[in-house]
Design goal:
Blueprint lengths: L3 E7 L31 H5 L7 E6 H10 L7 H8 L2 E4 L12 E4 L2 H9 L4 E5 L2 H9 L5 E6 L20 E8 L5 E7 L20
Parallel strand pairs: 1-5, 1-6, 2-3, 2-5, 3-4
Antiparallel strand pairs: 6-8, 7-8
Length: 208
Amino acid sequence: MGTLTVMANLTLDGVMQAPGRPDEDTRDGFAHGGWAVPYEAMALLAERPSPEPLAFLFGRRTYQDFAGFWPQHPDNPYSQELTRRRKYVVATTLREPLPWENSVLLRDVPREVARLKAGPEHLLVMGSGVLSRTLLAHGLVDEWALLVHPLVLGSGRRLFDGDGTLQRFDLLGVESTPTGVLLARYRPAGSASQGTPANVGPEAEVVG
């Protein structure tokens, strides 16, 4: 049985827009692109073993951004990893064949993602805010891996957009980096699929 994890870079005020590059996503006049780069937090995830078999799940915008950037850097180990893995893309405006090898187009999020989760693959969503909120609304997210950065931007698109839906989560664990980024892992409250929640007091899992 597969699982689905959403991984997102966030600021303290919940912004997830354009963490990697100045030109990554300038919608609404966003001028703070690349805000996560100085914190070097992705190394924390790179050191963690990936569940196997691992596949990626993207929304259209994030997929097109990744497909336009990473294949141009074939010597980068991260690019090699992305290319060789299967990539599922949720989009209604794209057509197959998709330009990046090992890419598969999906149309119906609830039905097709639920079908994938019934298989052996572990799905990882990176970025893709609209898709992540849709998956949350349909109860399809098993774990949230949130890289919380110690800055406030004051503007930008947020992971949770205040749609009025009440959601509760259990803390699975917290890790920190020397630059002050916290990797906080959550699961939907009441779910028993991801082990025992972490303590939220002095005994919480915090490592430097």
